[in-house]
Specification:
heterodimer, A: alpha/beta, nine-stranded mixed sheet, 6 helices, B: Fumarate Reductase Iron-sulfur Protein, Chain B, domain 2, Rossmann fold, five-stranded parallel sheet, 9 strands
Chain lengths: ~260, ~650
């Protein structure tokens, strides 16, 4: 059985973001990078399945990006992936979700993966489109935002989290793709022997040009912090007084009563 | 004729050969007992503790005969020390009698034990015997009547105390019986030089001389049998400490305090890290269990044990011994328990006070290494988050690494990247860099340096966590990763001297980084400021204030820096009111051993206990020298209800406010 997990390396959200000179994405200076949180759930789930199925199962981790993404790949290998594919692309951040999924699909096409795990979305761009688009491009069954995962004999049973706290259970025949949500599992901390073993695992490098034949469908036109707005006010107390306060505010701050 | 005493009186010289045979047999039993323990110790990993032989012997003799580590704690320690010296005198006296009887008399035909020397000899030995009995009685009362909290009573205690009492009492009885039949009648003036024997002699005084002789003979053999029993019992009872605890003074490490074995991360043949079984520990770790006398001094001083956490350093040492003897393949970590292991603050109070030179802290660290490196375990989710934060942003808070130097805004201070030609590199550390309260330490330290005309540089956003908390939690891998980055940077800037305000950074950079190739002098700001004052480069305008001072573990116990901070504060005008637990006996704030990034979920709060000690002095001000301590005490004052009563401030704040203009 062949498993694939797709991961992205993203900036730590505590970092200080500044737009780049083109103003269409962030400047990478002074950013700390880490594995996308949802992708960590995907890796953990894939590794758990890999451990359950035992020998004869191969788990590959794939990531697209510049050289720095190798760090995230290594972490996945240390967590228990068997081998890795690094699609080398120093301009990955300028690609739209269609192009990213096309790269993955182009790689996966003839490899015969039974289950593909991805994060629900990335923490930086947050399109939540890559996983589902890959499934669509490859004609795989797909479900998103899973918080529970089981596999038995060609069938994936997934628990999904829907809007408003509603849960759903779905069954998919493999080949299938799932996108993983917070609550699915607790990603493991790699042990030192596994970190050591990971150093010897194979990372296949593929130039992005060998896989990407698609043009972008969407273009980012601007990246900027939201304009600063005044803070909100919460009024409390007697309704009569509140009405007076609201009227005073409307007179003072707005033009509606003038 | 000169006064003397007839050796083997009433026993006869015929006893010499059987006596020596029996004595050697007893030594044989003793030797056999220890021989049998060898394979138990040998289950541990190799470790060389037989180098620097002369120094080791010297240290052993000095520690054993001075009893310095024993009477450091007066409770029990005074009794033991005086008992030891008395018993030693008795032993030496007996040896002298032996040499006289079996060498001087038959071979040289001289009698040393005669005249004035004999009088003195007799008196000293009698006094030693009486002292030994009194001390033994004191120890008996302490153990069986006063029963100090935590002092266990085991079978050995009955055996050993009874045996020692019996030996001493029969010793006096033999003397009494002999004196009743001889000196007391023939030379009462001489008898006065044996006060103990004279007293015991009253029991025999009214007996017929035939009865006296029989009683003497029986007592002599009884006493002899008891002494043989004593030697035989050594390896099989707590008496083994006579040899094992003494041996531990020989075997104690010469490495600087707090040194931890640096794991070779390049060696990919190693598949086991840390200790999961006793065979992963060193032979010395197992031997330590035999050197432990269960005096529970470690337990009494352990901040975790005294705040009802499931850790007793003594118990861990015992558990290792029990596994080594009974179940060598048993699960060490399960036996000790994860909660016990994670509760340790590595404050070193246990190891510092241990009269047996037992190395508690590194045992705990080895087990933590196994938990962390082999199991990926953490004391809690908050720790896992903090460790991840250190990996990503180089600080446990998870704040942007690029903001690390922001605290210096507005100060006359450059980063090494901007100007590396500086007098000192100030290694700021995570807390003084990011924590608002602790930034005051950093800012004030720089102000002090500026006033003294010292050119300071910082690494700013290039600096990373020194790795201390994660190392103490067992994560040697992450420690070495972050350390390597810091070291590479420091080397590249050609730094002449490093000063740290955090004792944890200080210990790590000064001692641990050496193993990783950093060879730059590192100082803590307390000694650095003290030197600036001594050299008159810094002048203070003293203002009187009353304070109590907290010795942080990693400055006091680990680095022996105890007087210098007090000297600075005295120059600043401070009048100290010491807490009972100060200096080497200081009580941890709770944040060492990586506990700074862990929540204290078990037992009561260590910081509140320490705050209570501070308020008990009546001083309105508690001065610390460590960002971790400051953080814990700010917290402990709030949660412990000492607000308005006690204020905690850092040494740098006090000094900076008093710089002479």
């Amino acid at each position: 059985m062949k498993l694939l997990v797709c991961i992205k390396q993203v900036p730590d959200l505590e970092s200080r973001f500044k737009p780049n000179t083109e103003g269409v994405w962030y400047n990478e200076t002074d950013l700390a990078f880490r594995m996308n949180e949802y992708d960590e759930y995907a890796v953990e789930q894939a590794v758990q399945l890999r451990e359950k199925l035992g020998d004869g199962t191969e788990l590959t981790v794939l990531s697209i990006g510049p050289d720095r993404v190798v760090e995230a790949i290594k972490k996945s290998l240390a967590m228990g992936c068997d081998n890795a594919v690094h699609v080398q692309d120093s301009a990955a951040s300028s690609k739209d979700p269609w192009q990213i999924s096309s790269i993955i699909s182009a790689y996966v096409k003839d490899k015969g993966f039974d289950i593909i795990f991805t994060g629900m979305q990335s923490q930086d761009r947050g399109s939540a489109q890559v996983g589902v688009t890959v499934a669509e491009q490859l004609g795989m069954a797909c479900t998103t935002t899973i918080i529970g995962f089981e596999y038995d004999n060609g069938t994936v049973t997934a628990k999904r989290e829907l809007e408003g706290g509603i849960k759903a259970a779905v069954k998919l025949k493999t080949p299938a793709l799932v996108t993983c949500q917070l609550g699915l599992n607790t990603p493991r901390y790699p042990t030192l022997p596994n970190i050591m073993k990971a150093k010897k695992k194979e990372i296949t490098a593929i130039a992005v040009g060998d896989l990407l034949k698609e043009a972008a469908l969407a273009t980012t036109t601007s990246f900027h912090p939201p304009a600063k707005k005044g803070g909100g006010i919460v009024l409390e107390g007697d309704v009569g007084e509140l009405v007076d306060k609201v009227i005073a505010l409307l007179k003072d701050k707005t033009a509606v009563l003038r | 004729m000169e006064v003397t005493r007839q050796i083997y009186w009433n026993i006869g010289h015929g006893v010499v050969i059987p006596m020596y045979i029996l004595a050697f047999a007893a030594f044989g039993v003793m030797g056999w007992g220890f021989w049998q323990r060898l394979p138990i110790w040998r289950q541990g990993k190799a470790l060389n503790r037989f180098d620097r032989y002369d120094e080791r012997v010297k240290r052993m003799l000095s520690e054993v005969f001075s009893q310095s580590k024993i009477f450091r704690v007066t409770d029990g320690g005074i009794f033991h020390s005086i008992f030891f010296w008395s018993f030693l005198v008795l032993f030496a006296g007996t040896m002298l009698v032996m040499i006289q009887a079996d060498f001087f008399t038959p071979v040289l035909n001289v009698n040393l034990l005669s005249g004035e020397f004999y009088k003195g000899f007799s008196l000293i030995l009698d006094i030693a015997g009486i002292l030994a009995l009194v001390m033994l009685a004191g120890l008996f009362i302490r153990r069986f009547i006063i029963k100090p909290k935590g002092l266990e009573i085991v079978k050995d205690d009955y055996i050993v105390l009874q045996l020692l009492f019996a030996i001493l009492i029969t010793g006096f009885l033999i003397e009494g019986a002999r004196m009743a039949a001889t000196e007391m009648q023939q030379n009462p003036a001489l008898a006065a030089f044996s006060p103990g024997g004279l007293l015991a002699g009253q029991l025999f005084a009214t007996m017929s001389s035939g009865t006296q002789l029989v009683a003497h003979k029986i007592l002599w053999w009884l006493h002899f049998a008891l002494v043989l029993g004593f030697f035989c019992a050594i390896p099989y009872t707590k008496l083994r400490h006579i040899l094992t605890t003494s041996a531990n003074a020989f075997l104690a490490p010469f490495e600087p305090k707090g040194a931890i074995a640096t794991i070779n991360m390049e060696d990919d043949t190693v598949e086991q890290f840390g200790a999961a079984a006793i065979t992963d520990l060193t032979w010395k770790d197992i031997f330590d269990a035999d050197a432990c006398t269960s005096c529970k001094r470690c337990q009494d001083r352990c901040p975790a044990a005294t705040t009802d956490k499931p850790l007793s350093p003594m118990k861990i040492v015992k558990q290792i011994g029990e596994l080594a003897e009974g179940n060598p393949t048993g699960n060490l970590i399960e036996t000790v328990s994860q909660d016990a292991l994670w509760s340790c603050t590595t404050c070193r109070a246990c190891q510092d006070v241990c009269p047996a030179n037992i190395e508690h802290v590194n045992k705990i660290l080895e087990m933590r290494r196994n938990l962390t490196l082999m199991e990926g375990a953490f004391p809690g989710d908050e720790v896992k988050t903090a460790v991840n934060n250190i990996e990503v942003n180089g600080n446990p808070f998870g704040l942007a690494y690029a903001a690390r130097g922001d605290w210096a805004e507005g100060l006359e201070l450059k980063t090494m990247e901007q100007d590396s030609d500086v007098d000192i590199l100030y290694f700021v550390g995570c807390y003084a860099s990011f924590d608002r309260r602790n930034q005051a330490i950093a800012r004030n330290f720089v102000t002090i340096c500026n006033a003294a005309g010292i050119k300071v540089g910082i690494l700013g956003k290039e600096e990373k966590c020194c790795g201390e908390p994660v190392r103490k939690l067992g994560n040697e891998y992450l420690y070495q990763m972050t350390a390597a980055e810091n070291i590479e940077l420091i080397k590249a800037y050609n730094v002449k001297k490093i000063v740290a305000t955090c004792p944890h950074c200080f210990n790590t950079l000064a001692r641990d980084y050496k193993d990783l190739g950093l060879d730059v002098p590192v100082e803590h700001y307390s000694t650095y400021i003290n030197d600036l004052l001594d050299a008159n480069r810094l002048k203070l305008t003293p203002e009187p204030f009353s304070y109590t001072y907290h010795d942080s573990c990693y400055l006091g116990r680990y680095m022996d820096i105890i007087d210098q901070p007090r000297a600075i504060l005295s120059q600043a005008g401070g009048a100290i009111r010491e807490m009972d637990k100060n200096g080497y006996d200081s009580f941890c704030c709770s944040a060492g051993g990586g506990r700074i990034i862990a929540e204290e979920k078990l037992g009561s709060k260590i910081s509140e206990v320490r705050i209570k000690m501070a308020t008990d002095t009546g001083a309105p001000l508690l001065i610390s020298n460590c960002p971790f301590c400051l953080t814990m005490f700010e917290d402990g004052i709030k949660t412990g209800g000492a607000e308005g009563q006690l204020q905690v401030r850092d040494l740098a704040e006090i000094v900076a406010e008093r710089i002479a203009s």
